[in-house]
Structures are given as C-alpha cells and as structure tokens.
Design goal:
The relative contact order is 0.09. The protein has 2 domains: 10-329, Up-down Bundle (ABC transporter transmembrane region fold), CATH 1.20.1560; 351-592, Rossmann fold, CATH 3.40.50.300. The chain is α/β, with parallel strands linked by helices. A hairpin with a 5-residue loop joins β1 and β2 (365-374). The protein contains 20 helices and 12 strands. α3 packs parallel to α11, α5 (127-169) packs antiparallel against α7 and α15 crosses α17 (490-503). It has helices at 10-22, 28-60, 67-116, 119-124, 127-169, 171-178, 180-218, 220-225, 229-257, 259-283, 288-329, 390-397, 420-426, 441-446, 454-464, 467-471, 490-503, 520-534, 569-575, 578-592, and strands at residues 351-359, 365-374, 379-384, 405-410, 413-414, 427-430, 439-440, 480-481, 508-512, 538-542, 554-559, 562-567. A 6-stranded mixed β-sheet has the order 6-9-10-3-11-12, sandwiched between helices. A 4-stranded antiparallel β-sheet has the order 2-1-4-5, with helices on one face.
C-alpha cells in the first residue's frame, strides 16, 4: 500500500496543537506546579549576572573587598545556583510524568477506536503502518511535552526576564536589542512552513519500513521457500533509502534555518552592544559590570532562542505524528452495529439471506442475489473455487461489513437489530488458522471472559476431545502458550479453538474451512468433534474438503458470487454439475496422493 503524504497547513497545525493541549487539562494542577517551579529556576538564573555585575562595579573596580559583604554575595550566588539546579530537576520530573500519562491516554484512545473499525479499514491499512501510528507516532508526541513545551515555556520566561533585566541595566540599549525579536519570529515561521512537508514524508517512510518488516516476518516461510530474500532485501533497501533521503532533506532545512541564523543574529547583537559601549567611553566612564551583564544576558537571550529553534524540528515531528494519530482516532469506518430501539435475543438461531448483493469497493460486486435459509439443527455448507464469494457471505453474517443490498435475518429479526453483546455471545466462529495468544491454555479457552469455573473449561475440552493432549502437557491447563501457539500442532490448536467456541455455547456455529489446515489423520478426530458441536445448532460451514460436508443438510455451490447449485451431497452428485466436477477432482487428488 502506498502512503500518501498529507502536508499540514498552518491552520491544521494550530488545531492539532490545541487538541494536544486538551489532553493536558486533566493534569492542570501539576502543570501549574511545574510552571511555578520553572519560574523559580528562571528567576534564580537571571539574578546571577546582576550579582556579578554589582560585584565588578561596586567592589572589584574600586578595589574594595569588605569580607562580610563578599561572603554574603558569594552565599547568595551559590544559593541561587543550588535553587536553580533543584528546581530544574523537579520540573523535569513533573513534565516527564505528565507527558507519559498523556501518551498513555492517547494510546488507549486510539487503540479503543481501532478496535471498533470495520474490516474494510484494515483491508487498506497495512499492519506495520498501524503499529507505527500507535507506538512510534505517540512516542514522538511525548517529546512535545518533555522536550518542546517545557523548553518553550522555560526559555520564553528566560527571554522575558532577560529583557526586563536589560531594561533595568540600560533601557536604550535594551530597545536596540528588541529589534531582533521580529526577525526571529520570521525565521521561525519560515522554518515551520518548509520543514512540515519534510517531516510528514519522513513519518510516512517510517510507516512503510514498519509495514515491510511486518510483511517479511509474517511471510518468512514463503519468502525462504521461494528464495525471495534478495528481492525483499532490495525492496526494503529501496524504502530505507527513501527514508534516508527524506531525513536528509529535513536535516538540511534544520542545518540552514536553526542555529546558524540565530548565531549570526547573536553576533550582530553583541557587536551593537560593544559599539554602543565604545561610543559611551568617549563621553564618560563605562561600567564594566554592566557591560559584562549585558553580554551575559544577550548570550542568555539567544541561547534560549537557539534551544527553541532546535526544538522546532522535534515540535514539527510531534505535530506531524499527532496529525497521523488523530486521523486514525477520527476514523469512523466502523463495523456495522445495532440499529433501532428493540433489544431482541437469539433463541433458535434461524438464519435467512434474502437477495443479498454486496461489494467491497462499491463498484465490483462479489455477491449477487444470495438467498438461503438455515434452521436450528441444520448445517448449510458453502463450496466453490477461490474468489467465489464464500468468505464474503461469512463476513456479512458476522457483521464485519455493511450490506449493499438485501436483508439478513436471525430468528426473523434484522441482523443489525441485535446488540453487539447478544450477537457475539450467540455466534461461535472457528477459523481455518486457529489464533492462540500468549498466556496459558486455560486463558486461551476463556479469552479473558469471567465467570467460568475450571470444571466448565474442562467439560468444554472433553466435549471436543481436547482434554487428552492437554492432560499430557506438563502443567495441564496452566501450560504456557507462546505467541500464535507456536509449540502446538495445527490439530491441537484447532481443538483448543473448538473448546473456546463450545465454552460460550453458541446458538449459531460458523466454520471457516475448519479442517483445511490439518492432515488427513488428524482430520478424523477434528471431524468427530465438529459433528458433536453441530448438534442442535445452526451451522454455516465453508468447506475446502468436500468429504467433510457429505452429511450437510444443504450445500450451496458458488461461482463468481452467485449460487449456481444447491441441494444435499447425493442430489448434487446426480446433477453432474460444478459440484460433481469438484468432487471427482478431489477424489483423483486423494488417490494420487
């Protein structure tokens, strides 16, 4: 998938910044405390040059060194240094704590919204890019509060305090220095407008790198079997190089518009001060302490400006990252949910499709006028070649996508009339690839659902025949399950997924090629478990191996999104149509094997 770079306008950047500040509202008291401590630190630092100036003009120049006064000045100076250090440490900890809490809240909010999104969104969004937004982009936002906001406020205080101190020392010279402020604002505005597009491009390339890595790791077996390592390295190298080029453009903008320009302005300002005091020396004596203090304050004025300018790149990255996070947070492409005020329950589980037509992209129809009915206790099997529409029927039944045309009802009620809780609790799903999570065997069966006794878990496992291999595990139901259940065989993982489904005791059972990924020997035990599971339930099954659906009450044969044949196994064989051809083909393959 190509990542489109959206260049943020100045107005959009301001809106994003204000929205980010909104997350700080709940930490208002802590922020006030942090700013107050920051003000103390700034005041302590700004008083130091004035003390030294007084020492130079009042004591060093006239060669007067009263011990008690000097001890008091030295003590006061050291006290200011210690106060500044302590305040900086405390305010740094406070800002870090606030920033981490804000990022935590952001991640929870964006993850909460992602969980509501329909599969149509995930069809377009690569997993690596999604992970990048939730992790990398939110981490960049943290730097906004820690490295940018704190520095901006602190150095803003420094700059204001510096001007006040300079006016106190020499109002005329302070006014001359004030002309540099508009110039600095122009440089900041210019930098923001140029760097925005660069950092948006860099952020997009990071997402592409994550997507490439995720794709490679998940498909490593295929890559190695087909010897695609060289091609994947080349593609990854190209994406990595594009990220490098984008990063270099951003760095060049930083190198040109950040410190060099500020340093030039600083040198000009110092030159003005020296020229001013040079002319003053022709008129009368020059106070060396004031000269020292002025140059010191100019350095203290332009150093905060330098820090602010250097933080602008972090600020720009944070705003770009926040824009990407908020776009994800504002996505409203949700899976279909309950509509209407009724709260019906699923009792029998009778399913009926009536003239259902569906398209993923709004232009190409993948299902056309699909109609069938499945009563309680019946099994309806869906067969057909790849792309015939089997999975699309399941996706619609599970409310992953909204209907384009037609109706789907359960017990005579529209599919969308059922609450999410009611619908998910009464519909059990078994996929071709059983997904196991890191945890224990028991936690994978309950999936975190509370209220189940150990006896109920064991009964569900015994019902599907999973208890035998679980009891042979060293820690039984508390045995550790690694990521994706890597230490279990396909058959064992499938039996665990059966137990997971049966624990919920669903009225409707959806089987998506439940035996396709297991060997023929394991298939027999899996098939026995499936037959027990289907008793007294409405079952919709996608079948890859036609031998597994011989006893289905109704078989729907799909071709290019339409039902071309229907009937039971014997009826379809007698018609000698598409089902008959598929059955004979599989029979020959089994004989050959």
């Amino acid at each position: 998938m190509k990542h489109t770079d959206e260049i943020l306008t100045g107005k959009e950047q301001r809106a994003i910044f204000i929205r980010l500040l909104g997350y700080a509202k709940v930490h208002f008291k802590k922020l006030l405390l942090a700013f107050f401590i920051m003000l103390l630190a700034a005041g302590a630092e700004l008083l130091q040059p004035i003390l030294i100036a007084r020492f130079i003009d009042d004591y060093l120049t006239p060669q007067a060194f009263p011990t008690d006064v000097l001890v008091m000045l030295a003590s006061f100076y050291i006290g200011l240094l210690v106060l500044a250090v302590i305040c900086q440490y405390v305010q740094s900890i406070l800002f870090q704590k606030i920033a981490l809490r804000i990022v935590q809240a952001l991640r929870v909010d964006v993850f909460k919204n992602v969980q509501k999104l329909g599969l149509s969104f995930f069809d377009r969004m690569p997993g690596g890019g999604l992970v990048s937004r939730i992790t990398n982009d939110t981490e960049s936002i943290k730097e906004l509060y820690v490295s940018v906001l704190a520095v901006f406020v602190q150095n803003g205080m420094f700059m204001i305090g510096t001007f006040v101190a300079m006016f106190y020392l020499n109002a005329t010279l302070a006014l001359y220095c004030l002309i540099f402020l508009p110039l600095l604002l122009v440089v900041i505005r210019l930098y923001r407008s140029i760097s925005s597009r660069f950092y948006e491009h860099v952020s997009a390339k990071v997402s592409e790198i994550n997507a490439k890595m995720s794709e490679s790791v998940q498909g490593m077996a295929i890559i190695q079997v087909f010897r695609q390592e060289k091609r994947m390295r080349k593609e990854f190298g190209r994406t990595n190089d594009e990220h490098y080029q984008a990063g270099m453009k951003a760095m060049k903008a930083d190198a040109l518009l950040l410190r060099p320009i500020v340093d030039i302005l600083s040198l000009i300002a110092i030159s003005i001060v020296l020229i001013y005091f040079g002319f003053q020396s022709f008129i009368g004596p020059v106070e060396l302490g004031v000269l020292y203090a002025f140059i010191n304050y100019l350095d203290r004025f332009f150093e905060p400006v330098n820090q602010i300018m250097q933080r602008l790149s972090i600020f720009q990255q944070a705003i770009v990252s926040a824009g990407r996070v908020f776009r994800l947070m504002d996505q409203r492409e949700y899976a279909p949910t309950k509509t209407g005020t009724e709260t019906p329950t699923i009792e029998k589980g009778t399913i009926e499709f009536n003239n259902v037509t569906f398209s993923y992209d709004g232009s190409t129809q993948v299902l056309t006028n699909i109609s069938f009915k499945a009563e309680k206790g019946q099994t309806v099997a869906l067969v057909g070649h790849t792309g015939s529409g089997k999975s699309s029927i399941i996706n619609l039944l599970l409310r992953f996508y909204p209907l384009t045309k037609g109706t789907i009802t359960i017990d005579g009620k529209p599919l969308q009339a059922f609450s999410e809780e009611e619908f998910r609790s009464k519909v059990g799903l078994v996929l071709q690839d059983s997904f196991l999570y890191s945890g224990t065997v028991a936690s994978n069966i309950t999936l975190g659902r509370d209220g189940y006794e150990r006896g109920e878990i064991e009964a569900a496992c015994a019902f599907v025949g999973a208890d035998t291999f679980i009891q042979n595990l060293e820690h039984g139901y508390e045995a550790k399950v690694t990521e994706r259940g890597a230490t279990f065989s396909s058959g064992e993982k499938q039996l665990l997924s059966f137990a997971r489904t049966m624990l919920a005791d669903p009225a409707i059972l959806v089987l998506d090629e439940a035996t396709a990924s297991v060997d023929t020997e394991t298939e027999e035990s899996i098939q026995q478990a499936l037959e027990k599971m289907q008793q007294n339930r409405t079952t919709i099954a996608i079948a890859h191996r036609l031998s597994t659906i011989k006893h289905a009450d109704q078989i729907l044969v799909l071709h290019q999104g339409e039902i071309v044949e229907r009937g039971n196994h014997e009826q379809l064989l007698k018609r000698q149509g598409l089902y008959h051809k598929m059955y004979l083909l599989q029979a020959r393959e089994n004989v050959t094997a």
